[in-house]
What does this fold into?
Amino acid sequence: MSIVSIASGVGALPAGAAALAAQEGAGTAFHPVFPWLILALPLLGAVVNGLGAFLWREDKRIPSIVGPAALLASFAIVLVNFIGMSGAELHGAEVVRLWSWIVSGDLHIGVDLQFDQLSMLMCMVVTGVGSLIHIYSVGYMREDPGYSRYFSYLNLFVFFMLVLVLGASLPLMFVGWEGVGLCSYLLIGFWYENREYANAGKKAFIMNRIGDAGFLVAMFLLFVTFGTLDFVPLLEAAEGTLAYGGLLVTGITLLLFLGCTGKSAQIPLHTWLPDAMAGPTPVSALIHAATMVTAGVYLIARTSVLFALAPVSQGVVAALGAGTALFAASIAIRQYDIKKVLAYSTISQLGYMFLAVGVGAFTAGVFHLMTHAFFKALLFLGAGAVIHAVHRAWAHGDGHGDGQHGDPNDMRNHGGLRAFMPRTWAFMWIATLAIAGVPPLAGFFSKDEIIWYTGAFGYPVLWGVALATALLTAVYMTRLMVMTFHGKNRTFGHGGTAEAGRRLHEVPLVMWGPLALLAVLSAVGGWVNIPEALPVLPAVEWFHHWLEPVFEPAIAIAEARNLVAEHHSPMGGGEALWAGISAVIAIVAVTATVRVLSPKPVPTEAEAVAPTGFARVLHDKWYVDELYDRMIVRPSLALWRACWRIVDTGLIDGAVNGVGRGARLLGWAGGQLQSGRVTTYLVVFMLGALLVLSVLA
It folds into this structure.
């Protein structure tokens, strides 16, 4: 594997480095162009907008330009490098060395950027989808008083995500890992005046720290074992240093997966992600689609060699991913908050990604990560358009704002919006059919590939779980569309159709424009990886071949132990047959859900009664939050209150206050002895004399 050090960091190879690279042979045709600018531009945007929050609070023109422009410029540089890498014979990673960061004994950590097929693909997703979200935010957040602060946080979020995916070492990745955690706290609790929203930000921050502890311990173990934390030398030495299935590699990978579980909201650390809906809707799109929650999948993909050496860990990843996918899908089917439905959908789809990397189908997992970024960003931004339109209709209708009518997020307050928002309706249906797995949209190819490989690698139970989850996905997403866009409008009550016609409008171009681009990507984004087994469609396996150099060492480890995919599913039949069955299941589920739900009257939020029976269990999210409250939160509060009363108030305060009282008592006694009264002195003299006589006697 070839590594080229670029000291200047601006894309030009020094003569010595170029000569060395030429001697090493492979992978010398690609030279990153202005790699440091990919990171510097979003950071510069964050600084400028941060200053603007104090300097030009009322002027929103500058953040409207600087925020999106920083991302678009970064995306342009990434695109140039992506095209350059596409035409190169790159079999190893190109490492751009910017400067030395930490030097302590044997520990040498630099600010180094790693360019390979995986990091370049992630940069395309992060900056591309992130740019569209920034543009959309110009319209969505226009009236918010914290406009400049919002764009500062958003730019900073993307900067840290780029550090995460481009970092050439685990410590530098961890900087980005913690940075996106910080920015998620700032953005989820963006409207911090609301205590509930502020608590949601704290919940996300604290729960992620649980997983991050595992990441840190794994790094310590890797440094002790390898003497380095740089990805290239560490992964090259992994197979020769670690025993296959050994306790050490199993422990390291499980600790890494603990970090992934927190960051990517898998069971049991999943409860923070639905609460993250407290932030502005574009933030939800950024977190769920392109950045933070995909970091866990990226970490496993980046360290695929370690996981290939740990079959027990792979089994845990696959089982937990499949369980999370089904569990979250079951909750989504009974939620009424449009953003909560999408939040649990994200958790479920992340479960699919972990299932893929857990069974060893690393390319399939990353493929679904990419397509999911397209249609989930579209769904969240579409939901934001709906919320924006309903909120404005209420606020401008009678001057009372949304509190007069209810929650603009609640789908029971929507209905019939197709007539008022036809573009948003069309775009969201494309995303819905894509995530449901209807061909030839993007989600069909990526999700079907995961389901197929799960069965082909010999996991029949998880294969069944994946199929069941796909069915539930089609049902709950179709339910969202029917309740929001079809039937009679309920925004102003069942009899308020005329009022809705006057007040409800399609969102402006700056908001629906990004939706249109994401709709195109959701439709055709899966065509980069069409397997040969599918009939009619032309075979296009570009995506698979693009990532092949990254995952080739892990695949070689599996093949050496005869862990290869079969050519049939657990129930028989080839890939083409089960792709057709999956497509039929998706289409039937969507059609049946529309037919069943469309005729049913939907009560408004004010008219609705509390669900009962099993529906209540699903609506209340299987009572996981309540369980954590009783088993962890309340006992912890009781313990800390006891520590406060006994240790802090009783012991520490008691000791400090006791010293003060003793000093006061001593001063009072001394004052009594020095009163100036002769009788007092005589009494003391007599007591002293008696004491002396008693001793001498």
